[in-house]
Design a protein that fits this description.
By secondary structure, this protein is an alpha/beta fold. Helices cover 41% and strands 28% of the residues. It folds into two domains: 124 residues, D-Maltodextrin-Binding Protein, domain 2 (3-Layer(aba) Sandwich), CATH 3.40.190; 96 residues, D-Maltodextrin-Binding Protein, domain 2, CATH 3.40.190.10.
């Protein structure tokens, strides 16, 4: 009996060693998040980071054998920080653009979003009416493709750009501005947090691809892409997307 137990122990140890050799540990990777961009990332009532980014990155790390260390980072200046390698990965619902791709690397896209104008629930003006009305105040987040879309659509207005979407949404709620240009997923995330307070007034742009961001030449990107492909193939990516409202 003791001999059998010893043999089983050796076999278990051998299998663990083989598994380890087949997928070497990547150790801890630092993942930048804003924690102010639901449903991708935010802080819950218990003070914990939650959202699509947390669930997706943890699943990716299970598959490529790494440990994610999420670090809160301000959006303003995040691309120079990624270019300099201050973080291993940025997970923040980031839109791929050719301009950004000149200084950082992107993963394969995981979802497509459209830009909308979010207003207070009692707003009666349409997007076109607010576009034509000189006094209508429009806000968004600084340094985002939302800001670019806002300036392209509301050409006769000075867009008020906030440090993060949380501040822009708070300004909308308090009546300091009349609308926030935001993608449909993030807008829905804020509406879920405060039901009945906001609504979409209309769409102003479409077809943006969201992806993870890496420092230039990062070896992590290919591993993340492989994990994303596997997650798409086995349905895990769809499950996480549905969990956080990225798809119906």
């Amino acid at each position: 009996m003791k001999k059998l137990s010893l043999i089983l122990s050796v076999l278990v140890l051998a299998s663990l060693m083989l598994a380890s050799c087949g997928k070497p540990s990547l150790g801890t990777i630092t993942v930048a998040v804003e924690n102010a961009y639901p449903p991708f990332n935010s802080i819950d009532d218990a003070g914990e980071g939650v959202g699509w980014d947390y669930d997706a990155v943890r699943e990716i790390c299970k598959r490529i054998n790494c440990t994610p260390e999420f670090k809160q980072a301000a959006w303003d200046g995040i691309f120079p920080a990624m270019q300099a390698g201050e973080y291993d990965m940025l997970a923040d619902g980031v839109t791929y653009t050719d301009e950004r791709a000149q200084i950082v690397d992107f993963s394969t896209p995981y979802v497509e979003v459209n830009q909308y104008l979010m207003v207070r629930a009692d707003e009666t003006r349409t997007v076109d009416q607010m576009k034509d009305e000189a006094d209508a105040k429009i806000g968004t987040q600084i340094g985002t493709t939302n800001e670019i879309a806002a300036k392209a659509y509301f050409t006769n207005k000075e867009i008020q750009s906030f440090e993060d979407f949380g501040a822009a949404v708070l300004a909308l709620k308090s009546g300091d501005i009349d609308g926030v240009v935001i993608d449909n997923l993030a807008g829905t995330g804020f509406m879920t947090v405060e039901p009945g307070v906001f609504k979409f007034s209309g769409q102003i742009a479409s077809g943006e691809q969201l992806a993870f961001v890496f420092p230039p030449g990062s070896e992590l990107r290919d591993k993340v892409n492989e994990a994303l492909a596997a997650m798409e193939a086995d349905g895990t990516l769809e499950e996480i997307n549905r969990r956080w409202g990225l798809i119906p």
